[in-house]
Amino acid sequence: MARAPDNIKSINGSKETIKLAIRITDLWFVGTPNRSEQAEMIIIDSHGDAIHVVCKQDQLKSWKADLMENYTYVMHNFKVMKNDGQFRICDHQYKLVFTGVTVVRQSDLEDLPFKKYKFADFTNVIVGLFQPELLVGKFSCNLFN
User: Fold this and answer.
1) 8-110 maps to which CATH number?
2) Closest to 57 in 3D by CA, of 39, 78, 41
3) Which of 12, 59, 107, 128 lies at a 20 to 30 A Cα distance from 5?
4) Range in 40-44, 66-70, 101-105, 107-111 with the lowest mean pLDDT
């Protein structure tokens, strides 16, 4: 019998054999194409919980053509790392990093939600009850000004 998928909420750094049934809600590439590039993504599980995932340059060649936004996958064998950078994409205290043994298999999982928005109450923002290191919203940069 196949093992049931883990929940993103249960990721606590204590085990590395995590199996997730997920949807990639956001996927972007950082770096210079054909030089140093990595994929970063936000994935969600059936409960709508999200976590940040990184596929570094050495693993990206294997997976770049297979990873697509809004598709569903079963993924396992990640490296679990503290999500303690200067800026965080998700509020989960851990992030996942692809390794040489990470497995990604596209799967038709219709019950997985699409993006789940978690809006902050405006009064909490005014009084400063928010996480300043958590990136939110859309950011754009005009390089031709």
Assistant:
1) 2.40.50.140
2) 39
3) 59
4) 107-111
